[in-house]
Specification:
alpha+beta, 2,3-Dihydroxybiphenyl 1,2-Dioxygenase, domain 1, 3 helices, 9 strands, 20% helix, 38% strand, binds cobalt (II) ion
Length: 133
């Protein structure tokens, strides 16, 4: 049911500095993309086996603003697993007592694919994103 680790998302206070740190390591670093509908600016770091997404708040009411308030140096915000069927994955975790965030209905995520998020309190303290792809 659960497939590849699609990405690890890291909230950062300074997108340029964070990007440079990965560039120095020889990673493939994308340009900054502003995603107003998600309230974040993103830089994608493509590694051979997965991606790192550097997230920075964009606009008012960004979903990561309070995370950065609590973690001013930045930190791991969520991890994302690929699944074949979001419906099956959602049903399975819900059947095992895991709450989904929001309505629990899939939303279109930062990559244009449907996603749902599981509540970190029900997932060993980790915000988990499932992406159908
Ligand atoms: Co994500």
């Amino acid at each position: 049911m659960i497939n590849r680790l699609n990405h690890v998302a890291i909230a950062v206070p300074n997108l340029e500095k964070a990007s440079e740190q990965y560039r120095v390591l020889g990673a493939s670093v994308s340009n900054r993309q502003d995603l107003p509908e998600h309230g974040v600016s993103v830089v994608f770091i493509t590694l051979p086996n997965t991606k790192i997404e550097l997230l920075h708040p964009f606009g008012e009411n960004s979903p990561i603003a309070s995370f950065l308030d609590r973690n001013p140096s930045g930190g791991i915000h969520h991890i994302c697993f690929e699944v074949d069927s979001l419906q099956d994955a959602s049903q399975t975790v819900v059947d095992h007592g895991v709450r989904l965030l929001g309505t629990g209905e899939p939303r279109i995520g930062a990559h244009g694919n449907p996603v749902v998020f599981a509540h970190p309190k029900d997932f060993q303290g980790v915000l988990v994103e499932f992406e159908q792809c």
